[in-house]
Amino acid sequence: MPAPENKTALxxxxxxxxxxxxxxxxxxxxxxxGWDIHICTVANGDCGTISETPWAIAGTRTAEADxxxxxxxxxxxxxxxRDGMVVYDRGxxxxxxxxxxxxxxxxxxxxxxxxxMMDHEMSSLLGxxxxxxxxxxxxxxxxxxxxxxxxxxxxxxxxxxRDPYGNVVAPTTWVDITAVLERKAAMLTCHASQRAxxxxxxxxxxxxGSMQRLGAMxxxxxxxxxxxxxxxxxxxxxxxxxxxxxxxGKPGMVA
Length: 255
Known about the structure:
alpha/beta; seven-stranded mixed β-sheet; Rossmann fold; 7 strands
C-alpha cells in the first residue's frame, strides 16, 4: 500500500517532553521521509517544577517543546490545559477537534490507553475522539480540508513500557530508531528544565539514559540496537494496514 498523499503526522500527547521520550525517533524518520511533523501537548507543563511559579515554568516548558520540534522542522502546539487537570469533557474535546482540523493528520500518535498517570489516559481519549470526529463537517468551525479522513492511529508505549499493573505491553509494531537515536536525544535534551523535577519527584536523574534503556529493550525484541514500539488502533473505520511497517520495514524479530 503506498504512503498517503497527505503526509502529515501528529503526535498528540499530554506534556512537553512526552513525544521526545516516546515517539521522537519515529517522528525523525518520518521527517526525513518528507512528512510534515506536528507535536501537540494537551497540558502546558505548569506543575513540572519544584521552585518556579506555574506561569514561569509553563513558559519555559512550552518554549523547550517548540525548540525540540524545530530541530526536525516540526511545529509545536499546546491546548493550554493544566498539569494534572486534563479531563475528557466537552470543552477539551472541542479543543482537540479544532487542532486536528487545522493540522489534518493522516498519521496520529497518542498515549497508551492505560498509563501511570491520568493526564496520559485522558489525553489518549481526547486524541482518539478527535481522530474520529475531526473530519465531520459540523464538528468544528475551522475549514474542512479535502484530505480529512480517519487517520492511521498508534498508541505509544506507556512509560517503562508497562501498564499500571506492572505488565509489559505487547506491541503490534516496532520502528528501528538506531540511526536517529542521537537526534532523538538532542530533542529530549531541549527539555533541560525537567532534570531537576524528575530527580526530585520521580527519583529519575538520567532522563536521557531512561529513554535509551527503553529504546534498547524494545530494540532487543525487534533485532535492532534501538526501537520504538506501538500498538495500532484497528477498530471500525480506522485503517488496518500497518503504515509504519510499510514505510520503514519490519525489523527482524527475535524469539
